[in-house]
From TrEMBL, chain A:
Keywords: Oxidoreductase. It comes from Nocardioides marinquilinus. InterPro entries: 2Fe-2S-bd_N, 2Fe-2S_ferredoxin-like_sf. SUPFAM superfamilies: 2Fe-2S ferredoxin-like (SSF54292). The keyword Oxidoreductase applies. This is (2Fe-2S)-binding protein.
Automatic annotation (TrEMBL), chain B:
Keywords: Oxidoreductase. Residues 388-438 form the BFD-like [2Fe-2S]-binding domain. InterPro entries: BFD-like_2Fe2S-bd_dom, BFD-like_2Fe2S-bd_dom_sf, FAD/NAD-bd_sf, FAD/NAD-binding_dom, Metab_Enz_Cyan_OpOx_G3PDH, Opine_Oxase_asu/HCN_bsu. This is NAD(P)/FAD-dependent oxidoreductase. The lineage of its organism: Bacteria, Bacillati, Actinomycetota, Actinomycetes, Propionibacteriales. The keyword Repressor does not apply. The keyword Repeat does not apply. It comes from Nocardioides marinquilinus. Signal peptide: none annotated. Gene3D superfamilies: BFD-like [2Fe-2S]-binding domain, FAD/NAD(P)-binding domain, NAD(P)-binding Rossmann-like Domain. Residues 5-332 form the FAD/NAD(P)-binding domain.
Amino acid sequence: MTDRLDLTLDGAPLTARPGQSVGAALTEAGVRSWRTTRRGGRPRGLFCGIGVCFDCLLVVDGVPNQRACLVPARDGMRLETTPRELGGSDD
Amino acid sequence: MTEAFDVAVVGAGPAGMAAAVAAGERGLRVVLVDAGRRTGGQYWRRPTDDAEPDARFADLHRRLAALGDAVRHVAGQQVWFVEAGEPHALHLSPTVDAAIDVDLAPDADRAPARVEARALVLCPGGYDRQLPVPGWTLPGVMAAGGVQALLKASGTLAGSRAVVAGTGPFLLPVAAGLLRAGAEVVALCEAGSPSGWARTPRGVAAVPGKAAEAAAYAATLARHRVRLRTRTVVTEVRGDDHVTSVRLGRLDRQGRLRPGDGVEVEADLVALGWGFTSSLELLTAVGAATRVDDDGSLVVVVDDGQRTDVPGVLAAGEATGVGGADLAVAEGELAGLTAARDAGCAVDEARVRSVRRTVRRHRAFAAAMHRAHPVPAGWREWLRPDTVVCRCEEVTAGEVRTACDDLGAADARTVKLLTRCGMGWCQGRVCGYATAALAAPAGATPSADDLRSVARRSLAAPVSLGELARGVDGEDD
């Protein structure tokens, strides 16, 4: 098994170690937020870190609303930040 | 696809592993369902299968392996719906969407969508209890348990200058873990006062191992010259799109903020935890009776064999009251023994009595711990009208206040309906306690009814409409 996985975040390269969650890989890369809230347009990233809070949602290989803290990083994985409009709108 | 078992254990942390081992070793056919990929739960989270394990984990892991096919471990699956009955039924869905997890979860396509069992042992664990504070939605503010999970799973540091704050002994291992991984802990803030332990010396003395554990953390903190700031809280988190500093305040003996004592500390990580909230989704779904524990959290009521008041449904671990891994292991074993005895298996009664004594001893310790680390009476004082209470729906303290004062909401359920507080993705798991507290009369702690109304969730985990449609009649093909 390779000791380095190559992913992308919105097309930009991102590396991860095997066994790491997507959220951990983003954190080690210095990325702290990847979602924008619907109402306030505020940045969000990891909060509970264990799958409870759903703050860290992002798009993984085209599948929306995935918890970055739970998704294991895989070579070739395409991550996309969740723009405000995808989260729907209240107002 | 439905598979049938004697016992279904939900949660493969300390309690669930112990329950599965106890029931399996007495001859029952067991399924152990867990959302995680590996056994161990949050407490025994580890980076790889060959990582050096805790001795208690290693023992349970070895015994589970020795049971072979008698215990089926269904990993990476969450229970989204439970039906109590004869038999009970659990509906499962993959924790991570199978479309993106194909080569990582070889079990996923073989996992049953539904399991049936004559007895359920529910060991769902818990997560950090949170109180809102201005600025806590900024990236860089995390639950203490999340900071710990990153460290345990992959040695990932969530920041380099950390403030660890809240209440309870769990703050110590989080601070020690950050220090060992190379972060600076600029402030370790405990809202309570350790002298509170003196109030119940018997509870503490009953579990001497805990003192040794605390001493080890204290040594790490001392080596890095980090002192525990008692009666100290984070009253504000500052930053534009990320944490840059926090404001600390001091509490008086009544747990109220002392005016004029605040200091500002630069930080890029804030780890918050106010004790724990038990995961009660499945237990409230089957209608099990609940009560408010010494720490103010809602927990499930069990008898001296870990049975709830719902026939054939048992519970162990944090769901019955937060008390740590040793208590969870003892409760799990007791639940497994009870399930075996209730199914007609021979059980060593001397062992049952011994485990029961262990449970009582650790319960006494937990009660002493809870009384020493209460949620401070004054926590609402540092909220502002624009402080977000519900992170999902972005409902502010001001909106909750308006619902109570102007719209006449007198309970948490009405606050929810009027404001959408607790109705987002997390279904009130994060803001439930705070919502219940804000709905309570000034100065009062949340009532059992208010805590129940924020703990009730019709689905225990989000599922797709397709899964929902398939699950309605219990058939999936």
